[in-house]
Protein 1
Amino acid sequence: MRNKLYPWQQNDWQQLQSYVKQHRVPQALLINGALGIGKLHLAEHFAYALLCERPELDGLSCGKCSRCLLVKAETHPDFIDLRPEEDSKTKKQKTSISIDQIRTLIEKLSLKPQFERHRVILIHPADALNNAAANAFLKYLEEPTERTVLILVTHRMNKLSATIKSRCQKFTMAMPDKNLVLQWLSQQTNNAEIVFNLAQGSPLLAQQYATDEHLTQRRDCFDAWLSIAKQKSHPILIAEQWLKFPETTLLFWLSSWVIDLIRYRHQVVPKNLYHADLQVELSDLAARINSIKLYEFYDLLLQSRRRLETQINKQVLWEEILIAWAALNRS
């Protein structure tokens, strides 16, 4: 329980506090916005504040009262943190919130809150509700119980049913101010500008990218990708090496390199580059590549992103992508 907001969240917090001051806290609040801007962090603090006996002057929870201590101990009877469960076999978090979880939640909500303040249910990511769970949850949303506040968090609004969205008060977090984020990142890394561009302004993603290991891996993969383009490395050998990297990260790097190439092809002075630190290599590559075939390669990457959700053989996937990349650079 961290009693501190991120620097770029002050305006969002003031807006949430206006609900409290006006005694108009929504029964169902849907917090949405881009990935990595701290939506869950903000939602947690709003939940803690609603449960606190003696909130601070700025509205944040005191962290010291008996109810704050219960939240810290994860034993507060009026606070439920609902997220995908852990798989008992793999010990990894599942990708969806099940109908059994929603049934258990509704059963708990049929009882009155134990304290006189709000009961708070935090659901994240809200888009993880599977179809059956979403339908069961919708029935509860139509007739919510007294003094209960539902806080849903998502960065994929398109994955939520229109009916659930229509039952919630929407709260959209904007992308943070660049100067605030760079100042915050500069306290943690010497590569603030690089990781800011790589994360396209998303501070928490940039924080993840700031590790030396991440930047080194990106550089190694880029050099291998460039080596294939120059016919100096074999795609199948590189595909085998790439099996040790996270698939989603690799696909993001590939897609963002291609997006930067497209920007170099069509903009005199490219803006909003993901990889501004690789501009020499990317601009040289863009000058000699076929634009139409580059778009076709980008389509293959988009298809591959969807195929990652299937049982496809990962080495076969990378081989297909890198063989297509080698062919593109021979044309």
Note: The chain has a mean pLDDT of 93.
Protein 2
Amino acid sequence: MVKRVMVWWAAAWLSLLLVGCGYNDFQRLDEQTRSAWSEVLNQFQRRADLVPNLVATVKGEANFEQQTLTRVIEARASATAMTVTPETLNDPQAMQRFQQAQAGLGSALSRLLVVSENYPNLKANQGFQDLRVQLEGTENRIAVARNRYIQSVQQYNVLARSFPSNLTAMAFGYAVKPNLSVPNEAQISQPPAVDFGPSK
């Protein structure tokens, strides 16, 4: 009887410790982070899926810059070739490679849209304009999904670094997760060069 009471008290005490140490919060925030990451991947895939139609439409324009098209095709191939697993969330190097590939595709698409301004027939093509609107909408969705993921990782990392939940993190192997960053952080920290040129 005494032994049974002791086991009951030990189980109750262990349960209280697990609740108070953040174990359940780690489970919740880890799932929240994975869900937010899935949405980021969905939006990047949506963008990648638009590229073939965009390239096909642009190829119809006579004398369009072949180098620009080639960069878009290569960047898409690089971005979609990466295998992303749940472990990517805990691997800073894999996360960085993923971000670089996606940034490369984003940059190539931006260049394509800028160059397309020089082609009046392309600008007047309704199919191209529809794809452009879809691409812009997708870029907005990517920004929203990235922001949600960043916030989820921030909440998780605060829990992993705060006392006493950091003890739970160490005991159960909940490492701090790498977050998404701006690939060209050094470049965007520089003030833009403004040149109005000579007035005409």
Note: The two ends are 99 Å apart (CA to CA).
Protein 3
Amino acid sequence: MTAQKIILNEMRNVSLTAYLQDAGGEFGFSRRPAMLVLPGGGYAMCSDREADPVASAYLKAGYQAFILRYTVKDKGLWPQPLEDYEQAMALIAENADQWHVDPTKVAVVGFSAGGHLAACAATIAEHRPAAAVLVYPAILKDIVDMCAPGMPYPHEHVTSDTCPCFLAAARDDRTVLIQNTLSMEIALADKGVAFESHIYSYGGHGFSTGDDWIITNSVCPRLPRWVPDSIEWLGEVMGKFTRNGFTEPIAALSMNADFAPVLSVECSLRHLRGQSDAAKAALAPMFAAIEAVAQARGFSVEGLMAAVGSNTAREILEMCQIPADMIRDIDQALHGMINQLEV
């Protein structure tokens, strides 16, 4: 492994530290996923406790790891931190071959104020990450305005194009109240964006990875699990990183399947009913199963379809006990069909 510190802006003390592992040779892959770490610190500093320890966790999982020390208040105000992020992501993309990075699998993890920056990256940035991990993120007006004036409130900018998000926080956080994480969750849910959330019973603020040597207060014993859980979740949405490269993502289309380029069983029934005759033919087993349930329970077919319209085809097929291999065949058939968005 090699380490490089790249100065992005000397005047504002902005730097990108790159921890790079080999690929090729004994390894069975040529590219790795990458994680860009955004430490917290109220936009007044970039915490060391949320920098190298976090990078190390993702390095261990096979990622290339980058730490961005962005502009803080004594050097400049918003949108300079976001501009620093954009510059860092552009640099990673530009050097993807040299740094053995798959540019489609670059995620971001941010803490507190860094969590605010990561949430902005997920919602309004030009260079969107493939996924965002938000740890006790500052989201709401009170805490965001306290950090620095004129910054966006990320939950107000969530759209169907927001990348999948993983959230972790402690219920008893007195610095960044848990309502910040909950508000972000609700915004993601409202827009149909894939997310996973872990709210631990106690742990306060600033627990970083939750390791014993780094925490400054008592934490729930389950809290350190957020790190391996986030890595497993990233494997679901970006593809698991293995000796043979990346597996196929198992939840990628669930992030916004109704808006994906092609159809899949992760699309909602309501959306699929407006698609082509070929798509409806591929889904014939699902429609037959719904009709059978409606007949058995005395429901109208149209009424039952409306009631379960928000469910995905996969959920309905599984509820109707359609065999897994048949679901897989239906999914593959749908993948060959263009999604008609105006339905």
Note: The first helix runs from residue 52 to 60.
